[in-house]
Amino acid sequence: MSTAVEARVDELEARVAFQEHSLIELSDALALARLENERTHRLLERTLDELRRLRAEPFTDPGIEPPPPHY
Asked: For the residues of 19-60, what is the DSSP string, one character each?
C-alpha cells in the first residue's frame, strides 16, 4: 500500500476508535441517567402516597389539631 493510503486508513481507524469510545461513554451516561430517573420516580411516588394519606386522615386527637388562624 502506498503511504498516503496507509495514512488515510490509520486516520479512519483512529476516528472509528474514538467514535466507539464516545458511544460507550454515552451509553454509560444514559444508563446512569435512567437509574437516577427511576430513583427519583420512586421517591416522588412515595412522597405523593404519603401526602395523599395525610390529607385523607382526619385529626384523631384534638390536641394535635393546629390552632385557628386568628391566634
From this structure: HHHHHHHHHHHHHHHHHHHHHHHHHHHHHHHHHHHHHHS--S
Q: What is the DSSP letter of 61?
A: S
Grid cell digits, residue 64: 394535635
Q: Classify residue 67 by its DSSP letter.
A: P
**Residue at 27 is within a domain:** yes
b/e sequence 46-67, b meaning 16+ C-beta within 10 Å: eeeeeeeeeeeeeeeeeeeeee
11 belongs to a structural domain: yes
- Residues 36-64 have pLDDT tens digits of 999 999 999 999 999 998 888 766 666 66
* Interatomic CA distance for residues 51 and 57, integer angstroms: 10
Domain extent at residue 11: 1-33
